[in-house]
Amino acid sequence: MASDEALPAPPLGYPPLATDVMVPTLGNDDSGTAMMTEPSASDRRVQQFTDSPFVPLVEAPTPEHEAINPPSDVTGVTPPPDPGPTVVEAPPEPIEPPPLTTLEVTLDWYPGPQHAALFVAQARGLYEQRGLSVIVSTPADPDVPLKLLAAGRVELALSHQPLLHHEVDRGLPLIRVATLIGTPLAGLVLREDLDIDSPAELAGLRIGYATQDGLGILLSSLLRQYDIRRDELKVQGVDFELDDVMSAREVDGVIGSMRHLLPRQLADEGMATRVLRVEDHGVPLHDGLILVANRDRLGKNRAAIRLLVEALEEATAWIIEYPDDAWELLAGVEPGLDSPSSRAAWSDTLARFSARPAALDHGRYARFEAFLHKNAMVDTLTPVERLAVDLGAP
């Protein structure tokens, strides 16, 4: 039987017992007298440990038990776990961005306010955000861009709707994919001192033109309205030199898509002018500045061109919302167009920007083609789907 007296305390330096002392199980014989039963195997094992009063009366821990409850040192403080070997991880290799898709766009003219969406989209990083690298180039002369495009030398070119109809009729594989300026920019700019108010008075004058549609469509339409034959006046090609030939009085007037800017440039040089708008004299309303692609190569470039048009739409929305900031940005990236005449033309140009460049007015293109065919300015009546496309349409 266990004694009621307390067990003696272990000497200093030894840990206390881990558990209470285990004792044999008592039983009764048939007479009711208490007797000690035969110890079990576990009791005998415990008894072996009690031969030394300083050993805890517990079974030896298993390795799994040690991992969960690490043993204390002699001071009673649990040592920190072994951290194991240190692994130094190298920083991950930087992920290379996907390569940009390059598109080259040839302007129709030297840079001007009408090209603002292209340059603003570039300056604000809107092309790069869409995985594009856009190269903008200026042509050697205004008749070159569509020829380069038809030959596959560039992916896109700026032009105007009348010239598109003219060149498609000649067999070039061209198609309109976006509109930057949705109103006519063409006009007949005449010297003010001639005092001419109508194309009916053009006979005998010297008229310069920059592009084939200026001569073959716009000027021809004005003359046809008033029964004037082309041989009744003198015409000459002047390429980019519209302002120079006017200032030098080599011609009496010029026709082309510069009526928003040229009169201001000439006014800065001391020449007063007047403008006859072509839509006031029989020419149907049309898009003044369009983006044209090669129809035969459109399938290959379609996705990239659609992204470019989206960038132009975002740039145009920002220009319309912040016109002053847009002009300062434009003048910063294209210092050559920061002139008094261009600055004066900025507000007039703003009103002309197409807020939805991808949108296509099928009726406008059909009416213009019908007008040209009726007046024998094109040989074949070309369907709209071969002239223009809306890349945003489902």
Poorly predicted regions: 1-7, 9-37, 41-58
Mean pLDDT: 84
Q: Rg, please? A: 45 Å
Biggest sheet: strand arrangement:
4-3-5-12-6
Approximately what portion of the residues adopt beta-strand conformation?
A: 5-15%
Class by alpha and beta content: alpha/beta
Give the beta-strand count: 12
Number of helices: 13
- How would you spell out the order of helices and strands? EEHHEHHEHEHEEEHEHEHEEHHHH
The biggest beta sheet is recorded as: 5 strands, mixed
What general form does the structure show? globular
Spatial separation of the terminal alpha carbons: 97 Å
Helix content: 25-40%
Verbal overview:
With 394 residues, the protein is an alpha/beta fold. It has helices at residues 41-49, 63-68, 116-123, 126-129, 145-150, 161-169, 212-225, 242-247, 262-268, 298-321, 323-333, 340-350, 362-374, and strands spanning 26-28, 34-36, 101-106, 132-137, 156-159, 174-181, 187-191, 206-209, 234-237, 253-256, 273-277, 289-294. The strands form 3 sheets. The protein has a 5-stranded mixed β-sheet with strand order 4-3-5-12-6, sandwiched between helices.
